[in-house]
Amino acid sequence: MSDETGKVKFASNANGASLEEVNGSVEVPKNAGFMRTLWAFSGPGALVAVGYMDPGNWITSIVGGAQYRYLLLSVVVISGIIAMIMQYMAAKLGIVTRQDLAQAIRNNTNKPVGYVLWIMTELAIMATDIAEVIGAAIALQLLFGIPLMIGVLLTIADVFLLLLLTKLGFRKIEAIVVTLILSILAIFLYLVILSKPSIAGIAGGLIPRASILHHSQLTLALGIIGATVMPHNLYLHSSISQTRAYNSDDKDEVAKVVKFTTWDSNIQLIGATVVNSLLLILGAALFFGHGDQLQAFGDLYRALSDNTIAKGIASPVLSTLFAVALLASGQNATITGTLTGQIIMEGFIHLKIPMWARRLITRIIAVVPVLVAAIIWGGTEGVLDNLLVYSQVFLSVALPFTMIPLIYFTGSKKHMGERFVNPLWISIIAWASAIILTGLNIQLVFNLVKELIEKI
């Protein structure tokens, strides 16, 4: 915002600090070297990157590779690039204005708009939680033989895991998440190396093709986008970017915080894009030609120990590694989903409830549609995996409702000031991404309605 002299005044937080208990809680060194400073700022990017490696990404990317080989690899990479741009803007909004995205929207729009966007974001969080519930339940079944229905109910207990983690401090939470991410990366890198993918196929898959616009490919492509550029992650990053202690009145210090937060975010998101690329490459190299047989996590688990599919590398050890990584992925995303729920509830409707209560409510709501689907269509992996894919498609449909306000605020000199407003090239790419994604979503809805009418 600007005063009469034209000088930038950083907006005060009208409804309290975002995630007040951890806001400004992490000290950073003064006058330290690049690597030491980067280390101090490393962490929030990992919490954001977790959302890009949840079970929703797994099923969309692996099935995408199994059905269309390397065709959708370009979608994964483009999604990663868009994610970096959007997360940069989200973090910058929080650092510069000292408001998270929910607060910025609520403080600059009327109540009806605020409530509509709040509901859309809550639904997006629930869709994300559905993916975590399904992934964790299937992993528990694969590892320990726990029935899916019981596994779904057991996921409610992860609220106690979250309570334990919150006692450790924010920096330790970041360290745990980074460790789990590196574990997942190592497991899939190992699996891909064993699968001996086609280098030429990978190179060709990096080139976008018009055939992606066909209905079946488009559904999976939008599922990949929705599972990658996740709406709730933009709210999350705009808040946790404020966990570092800095003087918001010193513009040079603010610029330094923006710089190192962006470095942290981009490094972590490059890692997430690599993981998602590995998932698709694994599906293409190991399971292409068996796409119709690999519609569920259980199918993938069993295929890794089946020599007729995973020729030459099949092993129960690989299957177990896959299930362990799946369970770790779902639990990892539990942390970020809860934090985001708290952020949007406080930011949009000024309602603050204990984190454990927020987590319990969100998880119970997410469990209901999973249980209903399991009861009506049977508690099978395939049914739950289909529900998971469409939950990711919903995230893609919900994404523009988050992208557009973020692009507007960070592209406005009124809100960001002359120094921190988006560069023109960033604004062009961001607006083009939002417009194209909206257009693809409209086409997807049209295709789905047309398909439904034809079936009737």
UniProtKB/TrEMBL annotation:
Cellular component terms per the entry's GO annotation: plasma membrane
Membrane topology of this protein: Multi-pass membrane protein
Entry keyword set: Cell membrane, Ion transport, Membrane, Symport, Transmembrane, Transmembrane helix, Transport
GO MF term list: cadmium ion transmembrane transporter activity; manganese ion transmembrane transporter activity; metal ion binding; symporter activity
Pfam family, one: Nramp
Compartment annotation: Cell membrane; Membrane
Residue stretches spanning the membrane: 70-91, 112-138, 144-164, 176-195, 215-236, 269-289, 309-328, 360-377, 389-411, 423-446
Gene Ontology annotations of biological process type: iron ion transmembrane transport
Function per UniProt: H(+)-stimulated, divalent metal cation uptake system.
PANTHER family attached to this UniProt entry: NATURAL RESISTANCE-ASSOCIATED MACROPHAGE PROTEIN 2, SOLUTE CARRIER PROTEIN FAMILY 11 MEMBER
Family: Belongs to the NRAMP family.
HAMAP family from the UniProt entry: NRAMP (MF_00221)
The protein's name: Divalent metal cation transporter MntH
Record organism: Periweissella cryptocerci
